[in-house]
């Protein structure tokens, strides 16, 4: 088992790793937008861009990219954001279509609107 921390991001504030590699897979913890660059009242699209940029940095630290993602779980504060999320998600992943669950929730930590959790396969 390997604990992964991107040198491009601050260490997690809680008792968890940004990602853990085990059995040929990389499990990214749930990622919120970067609090140092995006405020909770920022537009939803900006929050999505921030969270996907952080996911990319952690994937890179694990030797992976978005093309290696096998599963995504997205938590959205409000089901009405699903269409906007789907468009951003499609742009980020392009032709690659990992398994996915989108979970509408009433609220997320720090009042953000999106949280992403990924599983990737090490190339």
Question: Do you know the CATH topology?
Answer: 60s Ribosomal Protein L30, Chain: A
> How much strand?
25-35%
- Low-pLDDT runs of 5+ residues are none
Q: What is the CA-based Rg, rounded?
A: 14 Å
Question: Judging from the principal axes of the Cα atoms, what is the shape?
Answer: globular
For the record, the CATH class is Alpha Beta
User: What is the distance, rounded to the nearest whole angstrom, between the alpha carbons of the first and last residues?
Assistant: 16 Å
Order of strands side by side in the largest beta sheet? 1-2-3-6-4-5
Strand and helix order: EEEHEHEE
Largest sheet report? 6 strands, mixed
How many beta-strand runs?
6
Into how many domains do the coordinates divide? 1
Number of helices: 2
CATH homology-level superfamily: RutC-like
**Average pLDDT for all residues:** 96
Quick structural summary:
With 123 residues, the chain is an alpha+beta fold.
Provide structural commentary.
This protein is 24% helix and 28% strand. By secondary structure, the protein is an alpha+beta fold. The protein has a single domain, classed as 60s Ribosomal Protein L30, Chain: A, CATH 3.30.1330. Strands 1-2-3-6-4-5 form a six-stranded mixed β-sheet, covered by helices on one side. Strand 4, helix 2 and strand 5 form a beta-alpha-beta unit. The longest helix has 18 residues. The two termini are 16 Å apart.
List keywords for this structure.
60s Ribosomal Protein L30, Chain: A; 2 helices; 123 residues; alpha+beta; 24% helix
């Amino acid at each position: 088992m390997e604990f992964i921390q991107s040198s491009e991001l601050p260490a997690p504030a809680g008792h968890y790793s940004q990602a853990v590699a085990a059995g040929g897979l990389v499990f990214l913890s749930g990622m919120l937008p970067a609090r140092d660059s995006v405020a909770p009242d920022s537009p939803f699209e900006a929050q999505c861009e921030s969270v996907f940029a952080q996911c990319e940095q952690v994937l890179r630290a694990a030797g992976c990219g978005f093309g290696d993602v096998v599963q995504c779980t997205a938590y959205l504060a409000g089901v009405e954001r699903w269409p906007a999320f789907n468009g951003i998600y499609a742009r980020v992943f392009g032709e690659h279509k990992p398994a996915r669950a989108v979970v509408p929730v009433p609220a997320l930590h720090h009042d953000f609107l999106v949280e992403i959790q990924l599983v990737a396969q090490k190339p």
